[in-house]
Every structure is written in C-alpha cells, then in structure tokens.
Amino acid sequence: MIMIDVRNAIANILDRYTIAQVVEVTLRKMRRDGIVPPFGNADWLAAAGFSTNRKANPADGFLAALIPPAT
Q1: Which of 6, 53, 60, 69 has the least CB density, counted as fewest CB within 10 Å?
Q2: 3-state secondary structure of 68
Q3: What CA–CA distances, in Å, run from 8 to 12, 16, 18, 20, 66?
Q4: What is the pTM of this model?
Q5: Higher pLDDT, 25 or 52
Q6: Residue boundaries of the structural domains of the chain
C-alpha cells in the first residue's frame, strides 16, 4: 500500500509539468554542470550553448555509490 501512495505522489508531481518543461530544466542543468547530453550533433550542441569537452557519465552521479571500487 505504501508503494501505491508513492506512485500516486510521483504521478501527481509529474502531472504538473509538460515534457517540454522537463527537457528545458534538464538541459539547463546539464549546461550549468558542463555535461554534454548524449544526443544531438555538434552544431546543435554548440547552438544550445554546450561545450563538447565533457561527456555524461552515470558514475558521476548517484550511481557512483552502486559501482564497486576497482581492485
């Protein structure tokens, strides 16, 4: 029952936003953090204000805690 409440809460939050708003915020945060999105060609990236010297890496985020250390 708790997971149904969690699902409903998430759905209620997501219902407040359009996909365009989610993309806009995501791209703004990626640009702020200097992360190149994993889509788009070089011309589009330059026009959108991205530098192409850094690639997105899941290990940089919360997933880093899930990756075992190298031995």
Answers
A1: 69
A2: coil
A3: 6, 13, 17, 22, 27
A4: 0.48
A5: 25
A6: 2-66
